[in-house]
Amino acid sequence: MEEKNQKRRDILKSAMVLFRDKGFHNTKMEDIAAGAGVGKGTLYEYFESKQDIFDETCIEYVNEIVNKIKCISDLKDTFHNKLLILFNENLKMESDITLDDVLSSKNIISEDAIKAIIGKMFEMYELICGIIDRGKEEGVVISDIQSEIIACILIGTMGQYIRLKSHNKEDVIKEDDIIFDLLYKGFAVK
Q1: For 37-146, where are the alpha helices, taking DSSP H only?
Q2: Could you give the percent of the chain with pLDDT greater than 90?
Q3: Which pTM value belongs to this model?
Q4: Mean pLDDT along residues 15-43
């Protein structure tokens, strides 16, 4: 069973790289199979079509983000450190492909996959709100601002910063610490 799950993960990983680099329409099933180290026929044991692979790749990507946030949330650490880890992990994960890239594929991605992703995004916000609530309990986050608003500010700022970095690769922006400090100081108790 584990070998079958690993093969499925290998297929999705190969597909993600190819979809990112070549786009949906220029990616062939043969390319995905070769990248995963399987035969083309094996793809059809796991997925019905390239569309199915694309949808599952997008959902799996969002699942990875949610799982990382769950792990960060479960850490026995301070709010500051959890936020720093969240910020850095988000920068690492989205340096290759952004959540916006996934969601901007709406002409390609199926309605069912979009619904699944939106559900996962709500889960992501809830987890981040939980981290913020614990920061309020620690007395380091302003308590009179709704956690949901702070989560929106965090996620929005991280997303915009990642887009800025991805569009300025030749002029790599190295302001991660400044952005983090501005975010943290913006809602920290003075």
Answers
A1: 40-46, 50-74, 79-93, 99-103, 111-138
A2: 53
A3: 0.80
A4: 91
Distance separating alpha carbons of residues 148 and 152, to the nearest angstrom: 6
Band (90; pLDDT cuts 50, 70, 90): confident
Is residue 29 located within the same domain as residue 119?
Answer: no
Do 65 and 155 reside in the same domain of the chain?
yes
The two three-digit tokens of residue 60, written as one number: 């799996």
Could you tell me the CATH number of the domain that includes residue 172? 1.10.357.10
Print the domain residue range for 83.
Answer: 50-187
Residue 22: pLDDT band with limits 50, 70, 90: confident
Residues 6 or more apart whose CB falls under 8 angstroms from that of 9 comprise 60
- From CA 40, how far away is CA 171, in angstroms rounded? 40
Instruction: Over range 35-49, report the average pLDDT.
Output: 94
Q: Classify 63 as helix, strand or coil.
A: helix
Same domain, 34 and 55: no
My answer on whether 28 and 98 are in the same domain is: no
Whether residue 32 sits in one domain with residue 119: no
DSSP3 helix / strand / coil % (the chain, rounded to 5): 75, 0, 25
Cβ distance 120 to 63 under 8 Å?
Answer: yes
Calculate the CA 123 to chain-centre distance: 12
Residues 43-61 have pLDDT tens digits of: 999 999 999 999 999 899 8
Average pLDDT, the chain: 86
